[in-house]
Amino acid sequence: MTSSSAEGPAERVTIVVPVYNRAGRLLSEALDSVLSQDHPNLEVLAIDDGSTDETPQVLAAYAERHPGRFRWTQQENRGQAATLNRGLEMAEGPLLGYLSSDDILLPGAVSRLAAELEQNPDAVLAYPAYQVIDETGEVIDTMAPPEYSRVESVRLQDTIVGPGALFRAEAVRRAGPLRTDLRYLADKELWLRLSQVGPFVRVAEPLACWRRHGGALTVAEQGREMAEERLRILDSLYAEDHEPELDAVRDQAYRNALVLSATVIAPGFNDPGERYFVVDGHAQEVSAAAGERSTAAKLAAAREVIAELRQDNERLRAEVRNPLRAIARRVRQRRSGAPT
């Protein structure tokens, strides 16, 4: 389904793709997934953020193969938020989206989301469910975000909006550009501001793929900076915004932010399920340890508490694990006929 009607042609949609050192299969898959969309009035705008590999040559080849549908430009390396801001400034038409250079739009995504915005003229953003894929493209999971609530997003520290979202250019101009001081969570902060301009609409079916990359080192390198950004977003939100609904969830928001941040940077947490098990029920303890301190001090204090909780959890697991091993050994011995 496209958004064209008897009243006129379909509204122009620009998908911005920020790119940095991504020459290869993943970039081609991302660009091809947008260029193969069935929307009749679509352009792809790729912004190369100072790549040092063959990315510029790849983008130039795409522009030659897809005149009128593919544009690209280069800049010195400025980071993803600044790159996206430039792309949003250069975009043509009333509807915008962006796609990470290793993610994918599923067939029909742009038409479906554009139609949703056409049917909901007050909405400023439409977002879909999405699939989680690995580096080979294998589907790992399907994520079905709930209806967007600004208050719940703040309280639970859940971004809610995933890849594939489409939004109105005018609404983004009113909300303001992405914050360039945020390296990892700039989009999360933008959604909080954009939701003040107008409502979001959710599309239940998966229309995009988010690619998960392996490697604990990457998580460790990003963890501390991402943790600090989460708290800085809350600090700036509550410094400027005093809606009663947000004030009511302030303590819960900071508590959850501290827990999520500290578990990311606490040593030894390789499994998300283990993080949840260890921290669940101790959020108040973590929050109390942080107190009214600087962001770095809050994280350090919360990290110490969670490290202690993890040690307690290891002891508990050992107490449970050892008797179970003994029982299993006896069962094996009985089955083999050996004396117990």
Question: What class, by secondary structure content?
Answer: alpha/beta
Beta percentage is 15-25%
By CATH's scheme, which homologous superfamily of the largest domain applies?
Spore Coat Polysaccharide Biosynthesis Protein SpsA, Chain A
- The percent of residues in helical segments reads 40-55%
State the end-to-end distance. 70 Å
Envelope shape: globular
Q: What's the order of the H and E elements?
A: EHEHEHEEHEEHEHHEHHHHHH
Q: Output the CATH class name of the largest domain.
A: Alpha Beta
Proper CATH architecture of the largest domain: Alpha-Beta Complex
Mean pLDDT: 82
So what's the oligomer here? single chain
Radius of gyration based on Cα positions: 23 Å
Secondary structure topology:
Blueprint (H helix, E strand, L loop, with lengths): L12 E7 L5 H11 L6 E8 L5 H11 L4 E6 L4 H11 L4 E4 L5 E2 L3 H11 L5 E9 L5 E5 L6 H7 L9 E3 H7 L10 H12 L2 E12 L4 H25 L3 H5 L1 H16 L6 H8 L3 H8 L4 H42 L4
Parallel strand pairs: 1-2, 1-4, 2-3, 6-9
Antiparallel strand pairs: 4-8, 5-9, 6-7, 6-8
Helix pairs in contact: 6-7, 8-10, 10-12, 10-13, 12-13
What does this structure look like?
The protein has 340 residues and is α/β, with parallel strands linked by helices. Helices cover 51% and strands 16% of the residues. The chain contains 13 helices and nine strands. Strands 1, 2, 3, 4, 5, 6, 7, 8 and 9 form a nine-stranded mixed beta sheet that branches. Helix 10 crosses helix 12 and helix 10 packs across helix 13. The radius of gyration is 23 Å and the shape is globular. The N terminus is likely disordered.
